[in-house]
Amino acid sequence: MTREVVILVAEDDAGHARLIEKNLTRAGLSNRVERFENGQELLDFLFGRGAGRRRVADTPYLLLLDIRMPKIDGIEVLRQIKQDPELRKLPVSMLTTTDDPRDVEVCHRLGCSHYLVKPVDYEKFAEAIKQLGLFITLVQVPEINGQS
Q: Could you give the domains of the chain?
């Protein structure tokens, strides 16, 4: 039996995070969303470190990852995820305001699935997230087994 994909949102801007969740719902997704405010919090969840939340084995996850975050930035988070034999299967969509071609190149070289630039305009951003939500409904995501 296929388990529902849990969407991980690593976004330090609370307004952007609410907009992402709201428009994923508008796109028809009812998936559980877990939000992380910084890269360290996300890595602790994924790698099972510390006393906070931890990922659940045999659960499919999909990550929407911002680059500019406190503590550990999104590029370093992506690097650590893609170096892990189990976590490297995790689909990672970079969702960021950064359109620097060097960042785009680095993220793709490290193994991101997609690189999406957040439009500055509210309506365009909302529409982009809604389109992403429609895309997510079609994506097949592998389960991530065990703790790293």
A: 6-137 (3.40.50.2300)
